[in-house]
Fold this sequence. Notes:
Oligomer: single chain
Radius of gyration: 30 Å
Helix content: 40-55%
Structural class: alpha/beta
Domain Solute-binding protein family 3/N-terminal: 82-304, 308-538
Number of strands: 24
Membrane topology: Peripheral membrane protein
Pfam family, one: SLT
Largest sheet: 6 strands, mixed
Family: Belongs to the bacterial solute-binding protein 3 family.
Protein name: Membrane-bound lytic murein transglycosylase F
CATH class of the largest domain: Mainly Alpha
Distance between the termini: 48 Å
Amino acid sequence: MAGLPGTERKQLIGMVVLRACSALIFTLLVACGGERAAQEPADTLETVTETGSEDVVAEDAPPEFENYIECGDLDAIGERGTLRLLAPRGLEEEALPRDGLPTGEWRALAEKFAHKRGLEPQWVYVDNFAQLIPALIEGRGDLIAVNFSRTQERAMQVAFTRPLEYVQEQLITRRDLDASDGSLDVVLRKGSAFAQTLKQQSTESRSFHPRYLEGPVTQDELLDGVTKGEFDATVIDSNLAEVLLPDYPKLRAEDLRDSRRAIAWAVRRDSKKLERALNEYFTEEHLIAARRRASALRDWEQIQETRTLRVLTRNHPASYFMWRGELMGFDYDLLQRFARDHGLRLSMVVPGPDVDLADALAAGHGDLIAASLTVTESRKAQGLVFTRPYMQVTEQLVTAADNMPETVSAVPVAQRLQGQSVAVNPLSSYYTSLVALADAAESSVDVLPVGGATTEQLIDAVAAGRYDYTVADSHLVEIEQTYRDDFAVVGDISGERDIAWAVRGDQPVLLKELNDFLNKYYRGLFFNVTYNKYFREEKRLKKKQRERLRDTSALSPYDPIVRKHAVPAGRDWRMVVSQMYQESRFNPKAKSFAGARGLMQVMPRTARQMGISGLYQPENGIRAGVEYMGWLEERFPKTLPFDQKIYFTLAAYNAGHGHVRDARVLAEQMGKDPNRWFNNVEDAMLLLAKPQYYKKARFGYVRGREPVNYVREIRDRYFGYLSVARNEQMSEQQ
Length: 734
């Protein structure tokens, strides 16, 4: 309320007191969540809209959000359709675009999470940090989504997510002020966790006296006050200081603690489903974001330098899919051979189903497209350059089996479609073919664009009667027909079309290498065996396609046990399942040559140190693996980025923490980044199998290829799970 004239200040205080009394009466009358208390607005202190004056409301303005009391978990939040995000007033200003400012990043991350769950994000502001936890517990918000320090005192009241990052608390003073001893008045926002640190750091020669500012205060106001000499000092987190202090050259920062403090979001202690969903979301977002940061426009020379080939693809039965945890597919197997022939690692990249692969390639998210892509003029116009074809298909009109009359063969496809609707993905070649067919037909053909839909999902929808027809390539139809009979082929809507891989026009050397590979293997023994494996051997095909992973409801036979132990530990259970498959192929009786046992292949000695025995029992084996991962993660610096800590911990699980530490030291000596796994520390790990390197390492020899492959395969399988989940989510939204 700083800056208000006296009269206005008194009026505003009176209004606040009146609203506070109303809120107290309302809270006493209504139990949290009882009888859907939220049907009545909760007039509390928080601001729930971002509109201007209340006196003038535009005629077309949406109604103001009226807050309510809700203490339920994710299911209850889903029923209301709104995710209420708590923040202290004053952060609206800090959330404005400013390079690197964490507040804006948290805001975008929170809103994206809401949209991903089909919820509308609604920011609910309270006066200061001290009111955040009471507002959450009382059900006036669902999630504290700000730069929120995880302290022991706070953790007794709310549940924290997995840390988003670790920061150092920094004392901010003027450069011309001798702050090495004496007494300092330190201004803080009310409710700040910094007061505890200041108390701990005070000594006889140097003492800190917290002074709290009432009302909403921005970080800039605190720093400006220190600059002008209005305050001796303030405290802010290092992630904020890195962005803000360059604008305040008269100020300096001093670390207050020996260790870093976790920054996390908070939910109610009984909101287990919301906590789990957030932790899964953080893991997914960090790993995908890390992959995007590695985007680059590369030709053959750059690909060889990194020894990694990034392939853009789709999750479907012809190109790339998962069967019992194993990555498979015709394109996948062909490119595995190509990568092996050239000493490369293969990285499959599956963009969201509503992302055009040509756009992803142009943006550098991959090096080529291999997704049973039909060669068309429109795709060439997008800048795609195709390899020689390696398959020919026709586009076939598909309908439900009970929509197929006996005389269909006598009716031309174009005539049968007159006045009918056909559902296809607008990014597919089918859409172009149907538009051309509709233009040539005597009567209209209703082409229904279904964004993000896979061919399989559209066949499902047609078989269920939601659409009259769809279109699919003949080889995909053959695969689907091996294990289902609820749809039928009406006929071809095109002649034979070529299937090929695609690159950009600025990749002539990669194009030549791919064509050389196809010329060498096409219709040879390897190619024919691989082709038959996916398109001809009916018994094998039927088994694998029937058991192909189509949704994430059951990734393994042990999902409930994995969730039971992974979720409280703040781990994404899907990553644990991916690791479990890598360790034991879901075999609870698995035993290695070294004596590791069970689903997570933990050594009995290691398990005993954690008080666990009977590793062949699924519950014990999974619990031991999750706890051991947590122990290993704590061995790494808290300064490691979120995504990198996951990769380093996986490598340590496989090779041992000591060998990973050796690899980090060697990576730094080689001029590589010791805090990044892929293309940095993993390269050093490979060298530790050579005498000239492992003889100088503290922990000696390690079969470096094993942890390198281990981490990559677990990551790729995890991304495979995510691609299935994205397809599943798009299907639910249609």
